[in-house]
Amino acid sequence: MPVSTSTPSSPLPDSTDPEEAPAAPTAQAEPAEEAARTANTADPGPAEATGEAAGDAVEPAGDADAAAGDADVAAGDADVAAGDAGEAAVEIAGDAAEAVGEAAAETAGDAAEPAEDDAAEGATDAAGGAGVVAEARWWRWRSRHPRAARVVWWTVTVLAFGLVLGALLLPNRIAGLEVNRFTRLPGEAIIGAALLLALPRRPRTVVAALGGVLLGALTVLNVLDMEFTEYLGRDFDLVLDWGLLDDAQSYVADSMGRATAVGAAVGLVLLVVLLSALMALAAVRISDLMARDTRRATRATLIAATAWVTCSVVGLQIAGMPVASHRSADTLVKKARQVRQTIKDEATFGKEVRHDTFGATPADQLVPDLRGKDMIFTFIESYGRSAIEDPVMAPGVDKTLGASTQALAKAGFHAKSGWLTSATYGGSSWLGHSTTLSGLWVDNQQRYRSVMASDHLSLTKAFRKTGAWDTVGVMPGIQKGWPEAKYYGLDKVYNAFEMGYQGPKFSWSTMPDQYALEAFQRLEHGRTDRDKPLMSEIILTSSHQPWAPIPKMVDWDSLGDGSVFEGIEKDGKKASDVIADGTASKEEYGKSIQYSVTALTQWLERYGTDDTVLVVLGDHQPIARVSGDNASRDVPISLVAKDPKVLDKIAGWNWTDGLKPAHNAPVWKMSAFRDKFLTAYGSTPHPTG
Description:
Blueprint: H1 30-42, H2 47-58, H3 64-75, H4 85-91, H5 94-111, H6 117-126, H7 130-144, H8 146-169, E1 185-186, H9 187-198, H10 201-232, H11 242-256, H12 258-292, H13 294-314, E2 317-318, E3 321-322, E4 324-325, H14 327-354, E5 374-380, H15 385-389, H16 394-410, E6 414-421, H17 429-438, H18 445-452, H19 459-466, E7 470-474, H20 485-488, E8 492-494, H21 513-525, E9 534-540, H22 566-571, H23 575-578, H24 582-607, E10 612-618, H25 624-627, E11 634-641, H26 644-648, E12 656-657, E13 667-669, H27 673-680
Parallel strand pairs: 1-4, 5-9, 5-10, 6-13, 7-8, 7-9
Antiparallel strand pairs: 2-3, 6-11, 6-12, 10-11
Helix pairs in contact: 1-2, 2-8, 3-4, 4-7, 7-8, 8-12, 9-10, 9-13, 10-12, 11-12, 14-18, 16-24, 21-24
């Protein structure tokens, strides 16, 4: 049915305002309109007065449905005589229906206050569909239950304001979720209110909806910052970190099952969509409320702006937090700078990659003082300084380090230890591995990709370049193709499926460290047909979060294919029992480090030779739930050998004797280790770039 765009054709007011009574949907309902006009003239605000006026109007007319039926009969549509006014308005066809609609719209327009124009326009758009019917029923319910309608209206309004203000004031740290963070006055809300008041109806609605979606996205970013800070000790990177969400899903699948991971992923997507929709609806509702009384809304906006400026100038605070807030604007500026810095960093780091102190060093001038040695570089997952110094974890870990140092000494091995500051924290172990072995500070995924695609000499590749070593990698955490083997110069890499393990997974870890080390011995280190010494890179994974269940040491001769671990895995704790409990996480983490250290040192006692040289270090600290909110990025590193000449070469490093570094032992950036190691063992610098 054609609808006039110049004069509203629907008399139904906007459903967001409970304080206005519904106008009758046809020109025949004169008594209802007169009563509504009287109510609006007396007091257009209170919902109860409007509801009572509408009720009084309905009584003289009999029943609202009967009045609507009379209108239908007058229009010639006897089939809908028992229908309600909204249904009749939809079903009346032709010019007669249009005339009725226009007459009713004109009557409503004469009676309504200027603030009612928007509601009439909205009703016009819906006059040709079933939405009018539903709205009419809602209005009838409101007229019959004014008190309940008022409760609903205020509840929805308060929730709308709460969502918008909460999103504007939400911090991006879990520790910041305190009441005083939400008792502030956001300047962004004041600016947004002023903008909406200046816009016509349709642009205002669009801008409000888009603003709500933006607030939803901002909320998601704040939550991502919270989680990344908790797990990785840094904010979420808008450019680089989206790929890590897939890694997070894989971690959940490995730790708690694929069904849980899929359910969590679907739930999060739906939650994000729902949040954006709710924020948009909340912003639109607030904008409509302001438009209904622009004079009052403008006055309130000016008062709020004055208060914000005053509080900002005098530095007024509540519970230690400034009242005048621009939290959301700061976040957007910070994210914009982060994006710009990330893009700029790519070019800067490219120059660093091309420069290599040992890039042009001839093969015969690389590590000449280690010729003939079996060299092993071993990373223990999440082995951080906290394991040695935290009061909950340290007693057990320190006892293990002391006992292992003594056991190695009996076998003829001696150790020196220090500290390295890792390029990563809580996760992204590959960044710690690449930083140690490349001599470059690789603290994000973009840098990692740049290094892996470069010719920059890795420490492990230096051994291969000499031609004097066979090179191998033992990577039980790798479960797919691993092209990085080329950069690291590894002739052969054993992944999770190539070591013959038939036992159970221990949460994320595909196999116990003891089995991985025994497989290394069987497949490579114990071979008697080798004509060159071996350079190995080994990644031990049993200390990977969530630290449940944890393997236990078994007799080395009983390892077999790993089936011996079935009972141990079944009897161990479940990840769900540990993952959300800070104290339990600390305790189990400490036990996992004890297990990894014990497995490695027992392997060395059992299979090490006079020519074995071991470098063992952590790749990063555990997550904040274990290491603490203000933990350092330091990890322990030890060099172990039987040949005293090997340790004499690093005497100038002033490292601590034994496997436990002293609290005041030297601390280097992790990226410094490659050059110091190559220099200590006789390599001659020949720079490139």
